[in-house]
């Protein structure tokens, strides 16, 4: 069993290494030209060599993503709370929300550019809009699913609506909330990069567009790689926070393991 | 303590009795859902003496649980009134403790914190909870020890078995020393042996603290073992069909259930319910 436990931890790393090794080998064997598909060693080399020039772009993208994420989560949690706590608000706003949700978020970037010009603001807002909906839906679901019997136990003691929300509703919706944060942070990256490719002079998205227009393909791939690393890192951070705070919600998996 | 059938309802029970703690007077309860409405209780009468242990048995859907909701003030009757400790019940009355078939422990709190939850809600404990926390934790710990969970108070609910959860649920219902304990099939989901253990636990707690108890149950042996008085309710709309006094000395033991007296009573209760179902 122990050997298997170790293997379970090592295999994901092996899969990642194998992916890049196969990529490298395929490029060599099939003589793929650099401007079609650079070898991992090529774009990773580029990433390191040109790091001083890439770093400000990475910082900008990370900064934009985090600000947009924070904004989206705050607004999303507030909307989700309103919807989850009141059937009336839920009924009233549901069609509107679905409508907003159905609009491809890329379509709003040109509007944001008209309003705020090119730069950080439209990217922040795009990131915020991207991560808004999963947070709204999860917070609302979490709040709307309190066990009626538990509510009775507390209400019979004269608990107010606020007591029940504070003691039961909020803690109970935490697993839903944290699950949505993991999704939201990834979507915030998507929003930032999409906006940067259209309307920014700095940021990884902007850097990649510039690089592709000069056929600097290794730099484009370096950008993609960097985005993947940042995305995984942020996801891992929120997964860690989630497991610390809502350990009780994943109890079955833990006990089984 | 008496009363029940429709005929008896005409002659109202005496209210001047100072010992009467809960008085259900001619209560009718209608559930409305859209255009249709269901009559859950019809002209139900029942009195409970202070400190009495009453069991209510009856077929499914006869309004037993509704009666508990009315007694706790979570619901208002459509007609009639319920008087607890001399005053009519108009809103949640705060002197009740409740336990259900589903123990509904909060998974993010340790067992002892779950038991303490009512003290964070109800006065006078609420306003001095922080100041007196150590004392209250001591109270909860000794209560848990009494039901055999002394070593489990630091555990989370999902680390406990079904029987343990129900013990903890009883503790939560009793921590604020309620004068009225409302139990809605608390042992319904447990296996027979665990259930019998918990009957004894509940009897012990009741004898020590002596709250007035209304126990709703499907289990006639449970009713006979625990209650001073058993009310049999009819199928919907629920009324009290018949009332039996259980004349067995306390503390009762499981052996008492195998005496002629007890078996006869269980049999008789069963026949009332069978008869009502076949109608």
Question: Which helices and strands occur, and which strands form pairs?
Answer:
The complex is a heterodimer of chains A (257) and B (279).
Chain A lengths: L1 H28 L10 H10 L1 H35 L1 H16 L6 H8 L3 H25 L3 H8 L5 H39 L4 H10 L3 H29 L5 H6 L1
Helix pairs in contact in A: 2-10, 3-4, 3-6, 3-8, 3-9, 5-6, 6-8, 8-9, 8-10, 9-10
Chain B lengths: L5 H5 L9 E14 L2 E14 L3 E5 L6 H9 L6 E6 L2 E2 L7 E5 L10 H11 L11 H14 L15 H13 L5 E5 L7 H18 L2 E5 L3 H7 L2 E5 L6 E6 L14 H19 L1
Parallel strand pairs in B: 3-8, 3-9, 6-7, 7-8
Antiparallel strand pairs in B: 1-2, 1-4, 4-5, 9-10
Describe the structure.
The complex is a heterodimer of chains A (257) and B (279). With 257 residues, chain A is mostly helical. Chain A has eleven helices and no strands. In chain A, helix 3 runs antiparallel to helix 4 (87-102), helix 6 (120-144) runs antiparallel to helix 8 (161-199) and helix 8 (161-199) runs parallel beside helix 9 (204-213). Chain A is flat, with a radius of gyration of 23 Å. In chain B, a hairpin with a 2-residue loop joins strand 1 (20-33) and strand 2. Chain B is globular and about 50 Å long. A six-stranded mixed beta sheet of chain B has the order 6-7-8-3-9-10, with helices on both faces. Chain B has a four-stranded antiparallel beta sheet with strand order 2-1-4-5, covered by helices on one side. Chain B is built from eight helices and ten strands.
